[in-house]
Write a structure and sequence with these properties.
This protein is α+β, with helices and mostly antiparallel strands. About 20% of the residues lie in helices and about 10% in strands.
Amino acid sequence: MTTLLMCPSTYFRIAYEINLWMNLQRDADHALAQRQWQLLYDALTSEAGVRVRLVDPAPEQPDMVFTANAWARRSCCPPAARASKLPWPRKATGPSRSICPSS
């Protein structure tokens, strides 16, 4: 059985800007975010049979809903072709270390 980590969108909001999609002048629609999160949770747990472990949300961490920007796929590693097209610079800042059990 697949297990995913999720955090409810209770406190989700745009509190700072770190990428092109975040804009302090255009906050997120909180009600829509709540509905979308619940639909995703219900689909995963009821329809797909996924076990979901929840992390308690914290008001001082408004983007906790993005649990470590995790990759949702069968293996734990993002495919290299897709990872190389990420919208942010991929600069090494220290020793490389894989978190994948197969490497």
